[in-house]
């Protein structure tokens, strides 16, 4: 009865796993036979009970023999061989109840684990869907659309707006604006000038351009990505079941014990009794129960694991490879800073830029508009808006002619604009220039920011036993190195194409069990090549999700750390359950060999062992101590509130930085006004925010983090922020008393402003990664 209840639970738990019809059918038949026979037995219909149990036993013998033969052809014998011998033995000596129990255990274990062999059949539907089927070829009669297979190297092609570059080629127009995120994973568009290469798979994000084909369809970049994913998936070795690894020594021991018992006693029944109690139900069920429990636990954390083999393998992983864009970074640009020209204010620059960009579909324009709305800026309705793809937008805003976008690099720049160029280079940012009435008025710097939860995830992965963390990215080396330095990664490999990533994965696999994490179509081959592929499925491509063993359904990379902890705990419990059950089985085998246990009693004894072992395996359903911190709903609400305030307070940080910049060199008359405006924002908005954090958020976090000491360093930062703010206030009082700022004030005041800006940015970053990342 305990077995029946357990099987019912396991059938529900394993419903999410894709099992062949054979395993599902066998599980249903054996369960029905055991239940039907039990009902008949309790109704005193012994003959009918034996018949039903016998049918259940026979139904398992044929497929079990097939599984054994397949395993033997591969050069190893697993737990199924003991089950086949036990099934045959129970039929031979008429112990049908024992046979039905063994059949059910075998069917359930196979159902739970069948998907461990699916690595070679990853679905590449999304890759193939994105691939172009035709191209526009320029001929003497005009532009005609032809099948892609007819395109030859040297053909003149035209790529229209929004179309996918059909084959590798060379740009023959003045320039081409391309979205190469499918190939590199980077969200920012790139400009390819005349005679530069354009790769197939990139999307034309600008106007139509001419392309001279340099390769055929089969020799082009995108077709190579599809082939890489197919080859990498096909060459990945199937996962060896945990049960089969233990069966390597348990099987010969059980057979030797049964043979010795028969030889010494001359009783076949005694040998069958040994095989019955030796039937590795702890292996057939205990390990899968722990793994399925781990799968269930992981799904609650937003981690979908495709099969138990992947979870087992994740528990052994020691190397983790991560894509940058969309995995460690947000995957879309956001405003890093707003710089205003002399005589303008950063807030007005952002307001004007966002007003014009309201109707633009460009990814940078959307980021600017989103930032302005987050800061609650009132946008104006633009008129006469035109947009030049790859350049920017023009229009009228409040009667002024406004332009936002790229400007000619050869154009003469004022000193402040040159400083913006230098900062963009240092920060790895893109610049959107704002011109009002044909004069540069400011600039918006945009960058793909680091995920708030990425540093926290890296720390937890290391604590979970991941020994090597390496970034693989198609981005520039300088940008990649900066991200890696912030996160403390062990290595960086930048400017990689899909083939390079696959090669890097294969190289790491030679040294340790390797996990690859990514989110783009370009990551799909690398995910398929790794021991465990993990896709950021919340916003990632369908192709990466289909090529992965594990999909993170929430947009948080720290859920991977949860998955590693769950996998390790599930595997540990599975090993405990399997070894504990086998030790008990060894004791029972010794008793059966001495004639102290008959087959039917042995089946019941084995059932008792199974129940004890499986109850232990079910511990994997519960949360372990190392899993994610659980917060009270009120604390989560506070975190979300203060996280939103951080976004709103970016305007204050920019005002502090702008005031410091105005004091450089010979201060302008407006410099004092900038400092006064920065101090007003500090007093009215930032300092009340810090006070509320100190007295509301930190006390609420203390219980979950282990006590008030956990927030002491952040409290010290609050003290420093207050000290610098008071120092700035004192400088303003001196300036008012002296009728303006004196030269001897400038160095200290500028130092205070720059220092406060730095402390605030560091403090915000620390809070966001240490505290705000805890809330889902």
TrEMBL record:
<dbReference type="GO" id="GO:0016887">
    <property type="term" value="F:ATP hydrolysis activity"/>
</dbReference>
<feature type="transmembrane region" description="Helical">
    <location>
        <begin position="578"/>
        <end position="597"/>
    </location>
</feature>
<dbReference type="Pfam" id="PF00122">
    <property type="entry name" value="E1-E2_ATPase"/>
</dbReference>
<keyword id="KW-1278">Translocase</keyword>
<dbReference type="Pfam" id="PF01814">
    <property type="entry name" value="Hemerythrin"/>
</dbReference>
<dbReference type="InterPro" id="IPR008250">
    <property type="entry name" value="ATPase_P-typ_transduc_dom_A_sf"/>
</dbReference>
<dbReference type="InterPro" id="IPR018303">
    <property type="entry name" value="ATPase_P-typ_P_site"/>
</dbReference>
<feature type="transmembrane region" description="Helical">
    <location>
        <begin position="246"/>
        <end position="265"/>
    </location>
</feature>
<keyword id="KW-0813">Transport</keyword>
<comment type="similarity">
    <text>Belongs to the cation transport ATPase (P-type) (TC 3.A.3) family. Type IB subfamily.</text>
</comment>
<dbReference type="GO" id="GO:0005886">
    <property type="term" value="C:plasma membrane"/>
</dbReference>
<dbReference type="GO" id="GO:0005524">
    <property type="term" value="F:ATP binding"/>
</dbReference>
<dbReference type="InterPro" id="IPR012312">
    <property type="entry name" value="Hemerythrin-like"/>
</dbReference>
<keyword id="KW-0479">Metal-binding</keyword>
<protein>
    <submittedName>
        <fullName>Heavy metal translocating P-type ATPase</fullName>
    </submittedName>
</protein>
<keyword id="KW-0186">Copper</keyword>
<keyword id="KW-1003">Cell membrane</keyword>
<dbReference type="GO" id="GO:0015086">
    <property type="term" value="F:cadmium ion transmembrane transporter activity"/>
</dbReference>
<dbReference type="InterPro" id="IPR001757">
    <property type="entry name" value="P_typ_ATPase"/>
</dbReference>
<keyword id="KW-0067">ATP-binding</keyword>
<dbReference type="InterPro" id="IPR044492">
    <property type="entry name" value="P_typ_ATPase_HD_dom"/>
</dbReference>
<keyword id="KW-0547">Nucleotide-binding</keyword>
<dbReference type="InterPro" id="IPR023299">
    <property type="entry name" value="ATPase_P-typ_cyto_dom_N"/>
</dbReference>
<dbReference type="InterPro" id="IPR023298">
    <property type="entry name" value="ATPase_P-typ_TM_dom_sf"/>
</dbReference>
<feature type="transmembrane region" description="Helical">
    <location>
        <begin position="25"/>
        <end position="44"/>
    </location>
</feature>
<dbReference type="InterPro" id="IPR059000">
    <property type="entry name" value="ATPase_P-type_domA"/>
</dbReference>
<dbReference type="GO" id="GO:0019829">
    <property type="term" value="F:ATPase-coupled monoatomic cation transmembrane transporter activity"/>
</dbReference>
<dbReference type="InterPro" id="IPR036412">
    <property type="entry name" value="HAD-like_sf"/>
</dbReference>
<feature type="domain" description="P-type ATPase A">
    <location>
        <begin position="131"/>
        <end position="230"/>
    </location>
</feature>
<dbReference type="InterPro" id="IPR051014">
    <property type="entry name" value="Cation_Transport_ATPase_IB"/>
</dbReference>
<dbReference type="GO" id="GO:0046872">
    <property type="term" value="F:metal ion binding"/>
</dbReference>
<feature type="domain" description="Hemerythrin-like">
    <location>
        <begin position="638"/>
        <end position="774"/>
    </location>
</feature>
<keyword id="KW-0187">Copper transport</keyword>
<keyword id="KW-0472">Membrane</keyword>
<dbReference type="Pfam" id="PF00702">
    <property type="entry name" value="Hydrolase"/>
</dbReference>
<dbReference type="GO" id="GO:0006825">
    <property type="term" value="P:copper ion transport"/>
</dbReference>
<keyword id="KW-0406">Ion transport</keyword>
<feature type="transmembrane region" description="Helical">
    <location>
        <begin position="271"/>
        <end position="292"/>
    </location>
</feature>
<feature type="transmembrane region" description="Helical">
    <location>
        <begin position="82"/>
        <end position="109"/>
    </location>
</feature>
<keyword id="KW-1133">Transmembrane helix</keyword>
<feature type="transmembrane region" description="Helical">
    <location>
        <begin position="51"/>
        <end position="70"/>
    </location>
</feature>
<dbReference type="InterPro" id="IPR027256">
    <property type="entry name" value="P-typ_ATPase_IB"/>
</dbReference>
């Amino acid at each position: 009865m305990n077995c029946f209840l357990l099987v019912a639970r396991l059938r529900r738990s394993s419903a999410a796993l894709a099992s062949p019809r054979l395993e599902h059918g066998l599980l249903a038949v054996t369960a029905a036979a055991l239940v039907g026979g039990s009902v008949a037995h309790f109704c005193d219909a012994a003959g009918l009970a034996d018949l039903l149990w016998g049918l259940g036993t026979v139904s398992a013998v044929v497929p079990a023999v097939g599984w054994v033969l397949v395993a033997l052809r591969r050069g190893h014998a697993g737990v199924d061989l003991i089950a086949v011998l036990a099934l045959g033995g129970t039929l031979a000596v008429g112990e049908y109840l024992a046979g039905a129990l063994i059949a059910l255990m075998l069917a359930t274990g196979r159902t739970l684990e069948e998907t461990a062999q699916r690595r070679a059949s990853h679905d590449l539907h999304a890759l193939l869907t994105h691939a172009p089927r035709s191209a526009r070829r320029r001929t003497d009669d005009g532009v005609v659309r032809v099948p892609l297979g007819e395109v030859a190297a040297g053909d003149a092609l035209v790529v229209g707006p929004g179309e996918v570059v059909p084959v590798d080629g060379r740009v023959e127009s003045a320039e081409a604006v391309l979205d190469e995120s499918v190939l590199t994973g980077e969200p920012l568009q790139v400009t390819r000038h005349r005679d530069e290469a354009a790769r197939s798979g990139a999307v034309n994000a600008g106007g139509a351009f001419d392309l001279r084909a340099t390769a055929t369809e089969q020799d082009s970049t995108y077709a190579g990505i599809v082939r890489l994913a197919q080859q990498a998936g096909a060459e990945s070795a199937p996962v060896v079941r945990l049960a089969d690894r233990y069966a390597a020594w348990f099987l010969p021991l059980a057979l030797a014990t049964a043979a010795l018992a028969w030889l010494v006693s001359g009783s076949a029944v005694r040998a069958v009794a040994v095989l019955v109690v030796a039937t590795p139900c702890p292996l057939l069920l205990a390990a899968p129960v722990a793994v399925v429990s781990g799968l269930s636990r992981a799904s609650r954390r937003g981690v979908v694991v495709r099969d138990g083999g992947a979870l087992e393998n994740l528990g052994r992983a020691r190397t983790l490879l991560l894509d940058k864009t969309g995995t460690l970074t947000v995957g879309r640009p956001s405003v890093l800073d707003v710089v205003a020209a002399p005589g303008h204010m950063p807030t007005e620059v952002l307001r004007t830029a966002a007003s014009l960009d309201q109707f633009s579909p460009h990814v940078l324009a959307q980021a600017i508009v989103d930032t302005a709305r987050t800061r609650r800026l009132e946008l104006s309705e633009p008129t006469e808006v035109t947009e030049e793809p790859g350049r920017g937008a023009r229009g009228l805003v409040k009667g002024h002619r406004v332009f936002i976008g790229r400007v000619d690099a050869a154009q003469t720049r004022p000193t402040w604009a040159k400083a913006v160029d230098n900062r963009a280079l240092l920060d790895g940012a893109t610049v959107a220039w704002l011109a009002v009435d044909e004069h540069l008025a400011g600039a918006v710097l945009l960058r793909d920011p680091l995920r708030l939860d990425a540093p926290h995830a890296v720390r937890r992965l290391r604590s979970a036993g991941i020994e090597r963390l390496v970034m693989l990215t198609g981005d520039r080396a300088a940008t990649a190195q900066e991200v890696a330095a912030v996160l403390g990664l062990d290595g960086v490999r930048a400017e990689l194409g899909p083939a390079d990533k696959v090669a890097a994965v294969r190289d790491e696999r030679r040294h340790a069990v390797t996990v690859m994490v990514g989110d783009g179509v370009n990551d799909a081959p690398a995910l398929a090549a790794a021991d465990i592929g993990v896709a950021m499925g919340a916003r990632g491509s369908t192709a990466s999700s289909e090529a992965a063993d594990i999909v993170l359904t929430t947009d948080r990379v720290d859920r991977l750390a949860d998955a590693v902890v769950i996998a390790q705990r599930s595997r540990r419990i599975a090993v405990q359950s399997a070894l504990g059950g086998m030790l008990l089985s060894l004791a029972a085998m010794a008793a059966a060999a001495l004639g102290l246990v008959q087959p039917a009693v042995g089946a019941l004894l084995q059932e008792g062992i199974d129940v004890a072992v499986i109850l232990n395996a079910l511990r994997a359903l519960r949360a372990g101590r190392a899993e994610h911190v659980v917060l009270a709903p009120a604390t989560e609400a506070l975190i979300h509130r203060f996280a939103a305030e951080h976004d709103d307070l970016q305007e204050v940080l920019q005002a502090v930085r702008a005031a410091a910049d105005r004091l450089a060199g010979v201060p302008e008359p407006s410099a004092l006004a900038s400092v006064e405006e920065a101090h007003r924002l500090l007093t009215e908005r930032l300092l009340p925010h810090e006070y509320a954090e100190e007295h509301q958020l930190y006390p609420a976090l203390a219980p979950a983090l282990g006590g008030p000491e956990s927030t002491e360093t952040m409290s010290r930062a609050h003290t420093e922020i207050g000290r610098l703010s008071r120092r700035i206030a004192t400088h303003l009082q001196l300036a008012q008393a002296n009728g303006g700022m004196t030269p001897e004030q400038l160095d200290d005041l500028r130092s205070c402003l720059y220092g406060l800006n730095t402390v605030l940015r560091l403090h915000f970053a620390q809070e966001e990664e240490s505290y705000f990342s805890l809330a889902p």
